[in-house]
Amino acid sequence: MVWRQAGLGALSGLLAGYAALATAELVSAAVRPESSPVVSVGGAAIDRTPAAVKDWAIRHFGTNDKLVLQLGILVVLALLALVLGVAAVRYRRIGSAGVLLFGVVGAVAATSRPDSTSVSDALPSVVGAVVGAGLLYWLSGRLRSRRGRARGEEPLGDEGMTVLGGREASMRDEGESGWDRRGFIVAATAAAAASTGVGVLGRSLNGSQGQNAVASRTQVMLPAPASAAAPVPKGAGLRIKGVSPFMTLNQDFYRVDTALVVPKVDATTWRLRIHGKGVARERTLSFDDLLRMPLIERDITLTCVSNEVGGPYVGNARWIGVRLADLLAASGVTPPSKGGPADQLVARSVDGMTIGSPVEDVMDGRDAMLALGMNGQPLPFAHGFPVRMLVPGLYGYVSACKWIQDIELTTFDDYDSYWAKRDWARKAPIKTQSRIDTPKPFARPMAGMVMVAGVAWAQHRGIDKVEVRVDDGPWERATLAAEDTRDTWRQWSYAWEATSGGHTLTVRATDRTGETQTAKRTPTIPDGASGRHSVVVTVD
Question: What is the pLDDT along the chain (540 residues), one digit of tens a residue?
């Protein structure tokens, strides 16, 4: 009997938690999707997670790190709901109060997020918790009364005080077993069905809010650039099986950010504000304003600071956008080298992310831009539609703000951006790196001629040389593919006369400044990983 009561109590807790989340989803459709408790609590968890843990999650889960986090939150909520449900069988008020407490946690998380706009962000968590607490109180009350009636008792009050009642009437109502199974099943099924309906409606309404954004992206016609990118040189892409394509398809381009839900921004209502120190003329620009400006088109390779040596978080694409230096100059901004008072550009995203970039790097002549298109298409939502920022030669966390909506000129002394507050370096030029794409680790090629090939990058400096070493032998010069620009990666190949047995292949690159990729291994924190990539193979 005790275990049966505990099981039914646990089920009641799960139903209460389900109802709370479903209700919150519906209410968030009236507020904004980002205010739902799973998203807001998940975002708060990301904000408070140590940098080393975030880096570990990115390395092990890649672009699925946010899905893993959301699933983890749901698992934790489910376990807590089970515990509260069991507790509510004997202590109804305590169990229900526990549900309300989690509503408070969700409300605080929602209103404390950087992108929170008002206290209304707390409503989904609060309303959902009230509904969940009420449902748990009701279901657990039914369980308590049935237990009493099965003993010929009737409940009095919330503390389980009972008096003798009519046993015969109780048994007629509940059967000889003393349990009104049918009544509980009907109540639980009704609660589950109602919660499902509410959740589906909420999910549908939240999804429809992105329809205007989708429609606005569909209507974008990217104009011909005033400064077009040169054709990719013949021979820039090697025709060797296993080597990454020279141009990375949009759907294959890496995505690393803190947004649990990809923002869907309507380009017709999007605005960008430029303000701060040294801005003589504050400006607010629309998407159409940017489309009417002279656009540049450039091939640029981006790299995430979380990319381990030999890692996948690097990609090359053709971008089209407005030259950022021209935009800043039109607002009266001058770089520090010319007397400007601001040395940091803080870019703010619609999701509250802040990214700090050195003004000097943005305005030193490199092709820093506010990108509107990627590989001939409007930016995908996952990569920042309608507008994102990028600066060749800098890791993404100090340059590549997606879904940008605000640019403030300030100083590094006056303001710490999101990652700087978490002990990452304020300035982070991309380190010279190279990677072996083929053969793969633990491959078993046949003895004879084996093509070793991969990519190397040193954005804004360019790659001058790539060398390969077999085991502890001498460094042998690899053949470089044609160079597109110094802002893109470069493919390379090495014809290896492989002999039977186990071998270690290592690669290193030298950039145009003469700096050779270091052998010293360092972690990604605080300014990017260093070291040389190697793979172990067995030649048959």
Answer: 577 778 888 898 899 999 999 999 899 888 888 888 888 887 777 777 776 776 777 667 766 777 777 788 888 888 988 999 899 888 889 999 999 998 898 888 888 877 777 889 899 999 999 999 999 988 887 776 544 444 443 343 343 333 333 344 343 444 434 456 677 778 888 989 999 999 899 888 877 768 889 999 999 999 999 999 999 999 999 999 999 999 999 999 999 888 888 999 999 999 999 999 999 999 999 999 999 999 999 999 999 999 999 999 999 999 999 999 999 999 999 999 999 999 999 999 999 899 999 999 999 999 999 999 999 999 999 999 999 999 999 999 999 999 999 999 999 999 999 999 989 999 999 999 999 999 999 999 999 999 999 999 999 999 999 999 999 999 999 999 999 999 999 999 999 999 999 999 999 999 999 999 999 999 999 999 999 999 999 999
Q: Give the integer Cα–Cα distance in Å for 136 and 539.
A: 64
H or E element at residue 41: helix 37-48
Nearest partner of 127 among 104, 98, 109, judged by Cα: 104
Letter string b/e over residues 126-139, b meaning 16 or more CB atoms within 10 A of that residue's CB:
bbbbbbbbbbbbeb
pTM confidence score: 0.80
